[in-house]
Design a protein that fits this description.
Length: about 425
């Protein structure tokens, strides 16, 4: 959430940011409501001042034996007007707060202005793209061939966008989860956490999933709970409403969780195989940091996510997202895309984002820089470290052999009882 004072002082910046993000929001309407709110506050303050003066006068009249009934009657009308204004003020503030939830975060000055994925800027590549002397298969063919992916039965049980993994592929997924948690907790300094997979409206609102992305979320109406789209929601909200003490930042937390997304806005996008599904597993990294350090922390977060793919020896590229492809809540975001040989496609497996104080404001998370200092809003960041289905797809496609085997990345073999390959 943006600070209303900032919007009031910088309306053109906010309007331009919303335009560049492709968001339609009437900033002038918010400013008009804010003007009305401040006018009401001014009227209430004048009436209260008048009432306070009259209260003293009534007391004096009573002491002097004079009849204050006329003045008391007048003040009753003033009190009724104050009550009416209070109701108007409450309604105006409720409407302002509702509309502020739809105002997107402002892109950082380093974010390229653009409209679509085509305007994202590649900043580096890592690894060599492999070439084989045989016809390469896409992961859904490989998975079916080795008895590790069962997409048809996933669809019959739950509908399109769901799948079963079994045997060697299920074991590969479990190995990846343990490997990534060990890496981030053991080498990168994150505290491993186990998170709730169901959260309330306040948590979803705090990280910006609702109201903007409500249609993409799975909600349990009877309980008012949501299935998390990412562990980011649970992790970032751990300290919602709190004031963190001096010296407690940075906080670095990671967690594995299933993720649930309706993908309501993904019509027409790639749906073959397991690259776009409604339920998947992911290891997530979250940071809560002091504002002046957040962009350095974003770079180290990106390095932590890249390290996963480097150790898996999977070729990837890093792109900084343009304004039009940037999420509603993010100020800056890097996407890491792994190359899948069988699909001949780059697949996003991680988004590393800095939200600055946008999420902290929404969840009223504050930090006291030093003893006695006024609390400020910290910056929050998150990044996938990394998402599993597309990583599994890339391993299957890039590590396939002519005879139908899949070479296990060396770093995963200790997690798979020493197995060096899987297949028929």
């Amino acid at each position: 959430m943006l600070d209303l004072k900032f919007i009031r002082s910088n309306p053109d910046i906010v309007k331009e940011a919303a335009k560049n993000k492709g968001e339609k929001i009437d900033i002038d309407e918010i400013l008009e409501l804010d003007r009305k709110r401040r006018d009401i506050i001014g009227e209430v303050e004048k009436l209260k001042s008048e009432r306070n003066t009259a209260t003293s006068e009534i007391a004096r009249m009573k002491k002097e034996g004079r009849d204050p009934s006329t003045l008391i009657s007048k003040m009753k009308k003033v009190s009724d007007r104050i009550s009416g204004y209070d109701n108007e003020l409450r309604d105006a503030e409720t409407e302002i707060n509702r509309k502020l939830l739809w105002v997107p975060n402002i892109p950082h000055e380093s974010v390229p202005v653009g409209q679509t994925d085509a305007d994202n800027v590649e900043i580096r590549k890592w690894g060599e793209l492999k070439s084989f002397d045989f016809k390469v298969r896409p992961h859904w063919e490989i998975g079916e061939m080795i008895g590790g992916l069962d997409i048809p039965h996933g669809a019959s049980v739950s509908g399109s966008g769901f799948y079963f993994s079994a045997g060697p592929v299920a074991k590969l997924e479990r190995a990846l989860i343990n490997f990534m948690l060990d890496l981030h907790a053991g080498e990168h300094g994150y505290t491993e956490a186990y998170v709730p997979y169901l959260v309330g409206e306040n948590a979803m609102r705090g990280t910006g999933q609702i109201p903007k992305l409500e249609d993409d979320m799975y909600r349990i109406e009877s309980d008012g709970l949501y299935l998390i789209p990412t562990a980011e929601v649970s992790l970032t909200n751990i300290h919602a409403g709190e004031i963190l003490p001096p010296g407690s930042l940075p906080k670095k937390i990671c967690a594995f969780s299933p993720c649930f997304r309706r993908e309501a806005g993904s019509y027409g996008k790639e749906t073959r195989g397991i690259v776009r599904v409604h339920q998947f597993h992911k290891v997530e990294m979250v940071k809560i940091v002091e504002p002046e350090t957040s962009y350095n922390e974003l770079e180290s977060l990106l390095e932590n996510a890249e390290r996963v793919l480097q150790l898996l020896d999977l070729p990837y590229r890093v792109r900084v997202l343009c304004t039009g492809d940037l999420s509603f809540s993010a100020a800056k975001c890097y996407d890491i895309e792994v190359y899948a040989l069988g699909m001949d496609a780059w697949l996003e497996v991680s988004s590393c984002s800095n939200f600055e104080d946008f999420q902290a404001r929404r969840m009223n998370l504050r930090y006291r820089p030093e003893k006695g200092a006024r609390p400020i809003f910290p910056h929050t960041l998150n990044g996938s470290g990394v998402a599993l289905p597309r990583t599994v797809a890339a391993i299957l496609e890039n590590n396939q052999t002519k005879d139908g085997q899949i070479l296990i990345p060396e770093v995963l073999r200790s997690y798979m009882a020493g197995m060096e390959r899987i297949g028929i």
